[in-house]
Amino acid sequence: MTSGDPRRTGVAALLARHRPLDDEAAGHLRVIREHVAAAAYPFDRSGFAPGHLTASGFVADPGGERVLMILHGTIGAWLQPGGHVDPGDDGPAAAAIREVEEETGVLGIVPIGEGLLDVDVHRHPGKPGREPPHLHLDLRFGFRAGTEDLAPTDEVDEARWVPFSRLGDLGVDRSVTRAAGALARLVRPGSP
Q: What pLDDT, on a 0 to 100 scale, did the predictor assign at position 1?
């Protein structure tokens, strides 16, 4: 492990404790562990080869029946809220909470479960003239909201609470349904 970001030790421990949800997530976990071990600054948002760590939150409503989704303005797809880990963030879980609050206005967010909910590696299209396409190595956390009130910012096109059983209506990909399913099992024991 090279010197660099002091948060790396905490992230490495978080990854060591994580049990992937399926074989695909196990592959993502290997890629993320290798990145954390090799990169001096694994959260550096200007690290484009291959990419950098991000943090996101799968958030259940207070009643545990719905999950918070955003229509991402740049990508044009329904996703969980999340984004980059800033230098002032006290680790990726804190960054995920900050991103949820900033993007959706939801408050009173508390962690559910221990550690990571899921991990995912996906290609970000980049921003023409500003950043090339690169990987987001996403650390995903499970939360419950203290309120249902939404006040989305201009960072997102729309935010809404979606019943777990209706996520398919939004055309989300398997990585979203995998993590949302894990969240549903945490907030509603006995869920499939």
A: 46
Collapse the DSSP code of 186 into the 3-class scheme (helix H, G, I; strand E, B; otherwise coil) and give the result: helix
- What is the Cα–Cα distance from 115 to 171, expressed in whole angstroms? 28
Torsion of CA 24, 91, 105, 78, to 10 degrees: -20
Class of domain 8-187: alpha beta
E strand segments, 28-184: 51-60, 66-72, 78-79, 82-84, 110-111, 118-124, 134-144, 156-163
Ordered by start, the domain boundaries in the chain are 8-187
Q: 0.85 exceeded by the pTM?
A: yes
What confidence score (pLDDT) does residue 191 get?
Answer: 63
Alpha carbon distance 103, 141 (integer Å): 16
Element of type H or E holding 147: none
Q: What average pLDDT does this structure show over 47-61?
A: 92
At 75, list the tokens: 């990508």
**Could you give the CA distance from residue 14 to residue 98 in angstroms, rounded to a whole number?**
19
Beta bridge partners of 56: 82, 140
Alpha-carbon gap, residue 61 to 107, rounded angstroms = 11
Contact 28, 120 (CB under 8 A): yes
What is the distance between the alpha carbons of residues 72 and 64, in angstroms, rounded to a whole number?
Answer: 23
